[in-house]
Request: fold
Amino acid sequence: MKPYKIADNVYFLQINHFNRRLFDSLIPLPEGTSYNAYLVKGSERTALLDTADPEKREVLFDFLKDVKKLDYVVSHHAEQDHSGSIPFVLEKYPMAKVVTNPKCKEFLMSHLHIPAEKFIEVKDYGTLDLGGKTLQFIYTPWVHWPETMSTYLKEDRILFSCDFFGSHLATSSAFSEETVVHDPMKRYYAEIMMPFATSVKSNLEKIKDLDLGMIAPSHGPVHKNVKFVTGLYRDWAAGETKNKALIAYVSMHGSTAIMVNRLVSRLQEAGVGVEKINMEQFDEGRVAMALVDAATVVIGTPTVLAGPHPKAVYGAYLANALRPKAKFVSVIGSYGWGGKTVEIIAGMIPNLKAEVLKPVIVKGKPTETDLALVDELAALIAGKHSELFNRTEAKSLTGNG
Ligand code: FEO
Reply:
């Protein structure tokens, strides 16, 4: 394989993993992923920026087969999908030094047992001259680990951003197309970045004055349309919600499903967009994406052993961990003879700073009287949305937003 030239003496080593279906033993990868490394050749020295998941290191070494001398391996992030092949690279190039910040060095020493003498530590905004190619290191912490950083290649106006602006998208295209990359980027943001929205915002601020011709992340294609991708991140991190409700549910004998279907119908009739996800078997990424901008989250669950169904517990735990910006939350479902479903779910979602709308929990198969309560909940959600979005619209019209 030949590396793809993205600028003079700057090469993209696009290590696709088309068949990978799960990341961190958790996150579904419907479109695979890629581990991106980059090679920057100065007139005097050569640097490799990041490596690859060790499972794909043979592809990395195929890309490097004509590289006789490597001076530096820049490590932006210690997570093993980018750093895991560093020890193998150091075996092949024993004179190379690992260039990173002190926190990342600490992580690489503990995760990969790379000895201290192999490192060169860099400061925030520190530079490294390769000979006509100047790497400037910019700390971009918490996107999504505490040690994450980016590199700005001044002469070519490229920001190597690691996970920041990434997408789990295996593709033979080197550069992103807006319509293709939007959903994989949103999914990636939702799963990886959303809990750190405050850090995303401060890091966007930190890079906003850089003259950028390209953003080269460590997953998915390279972005030439810098305004498009930074705009997406700005919108998502702002936490503005849309007139949309996420209804994530599980049903054992159909009673909760009847209530969910009624709620979906009534919400749709009232003009509220609905994302309905059955958690019996579900794609966590779909839930995460819906949580980026859903104004309301409703969890539907039957009662099992006096509490919520374990799959609803999983969904609630996931939603809480992702720290979405939903404004309203509720629970619906049925029970056989009693339980503490609502109390348990409510106790599991402290990170959702949302108003709790009166839950609807009914005994057995819902009656028309029970379903009238679901109708009331739908009307309440629609009213809350109407109030929220009219207010937002009015604010933007008067310029006070
Ligand atoms: Fe792609 Fe956080 O590693």
Observations:
- The pocket of MU-OXO-diiron is lined by residues 77, 79, 81-82, 144, 163, 218-219 (CB under 6 Å).
- DSSP finds twelve helices and 22 strands in the chain.
- The radius of gyration is 24 Å.
- Residues 368-398 form the longest helix (31 residues).
